[in-house]
Amino acid sequence: MSSPIERSSIAKAAQEKSKPDKPVDVRSDRVRGLLLRILPSGLRTYYVQVARGQRVKIGPAGTYTLRQAEERAKEITINPELAVRKKASALSLDEYITQHYSDHALAKLKNGQKSIDRVKSVWQKFLNKRLSDLTAREIDKFRDKRINAGVAPATVNRDVSALSGVLSHWAKNNEGSVHPLAELEALQVADDETVRYLLPDESKRLRQALADRDAEAATARLSANKWRAVRGKEAMLEIKGYCDHMTPMVLLSLNTGMRQGELFSLAWENVDLSLKTITVLASHSKGNNTRVIPLNVEAHTVLTTIKPDVAKGLVFKSPVTGARFDNVKKAWAEIAKAAALPDLRWHDLRHDFASQLVMKGAPLFTVQKLLGHANSRMTQRYAKLAPSTLADAVGLL
Q: Is 1.10.443.10 the CATH number for 200-395?
């Protein structure tokens, strides 16, 4: 049964002070599409319905008289598309993300939620600013402020890229809107990252730390089973070989150059032990390119050893959730400490893979393809590890 408010004329409903239990729409019987939205708080706002599920806000009753709302509704219905574009332009950055961009980012972008979180965190001071009022000048000024505060240029570029993604979506979906950052050039980033790779002694220490960790776990399990046997308890499964996921993951990183996130997402369906290859899917790769990595003897042995009878789904599953790993920071820190390599990052295993290949004479183009770099610029950092190759080229003269 309809409420008394719903049965009221729009003119009467606009004047009343009553508060409904739930939002109520009172429609005009004079102007097509015009309605008054009444909230439980008592707030009354005029809207015009321009399409199924699509409304354009006119304004609150009191600010607008009924006659003014009727005239505005007629103007909007003449060109509803223009009204919708103006509505989008009037939204703040935060409103646009919530109402329009969020669904797109979560559905279409690999790291959609991270991108949204980045914009809301870094560009917090701009969240209440209308999209149409954002300018390249103020973004550039804020960018300079972050650089002066010591933020790395590469990080600032990623910050701007995340914001630009929102603005690109807005400009693309609202004809006549101009992307305010279209002409803003990215900051120059010096590719001076130090290539950290393992020296022979460091490699030996890392592998020994992994072996010791597995052996200690196996010994602890035997001890626990002896304790359980004395008390008549069922024995736990004996540990033979790897005690968990860490040694296999580290060895695969060293022998394939796969990123940590790519390892976390690796599925048995993308491992071919007969052809001795791993396929890294574009959806799991930072560069959004699918690549095939040949398995050397050690990598093939690792995967053969850990392959279950029914090899489906993730190769490495979290023992806590049974799902994809989020991180292995604690275990990695313990291994690095045991190997006396406190400065060694997991990503350095990827550097080691590339460095060892270059130092053994592998062409940079081959290394580029194995690493999945979109262009040769990132791979060039390893060129200095092959000075003899460069000297031989000059020697041709």
A: yes
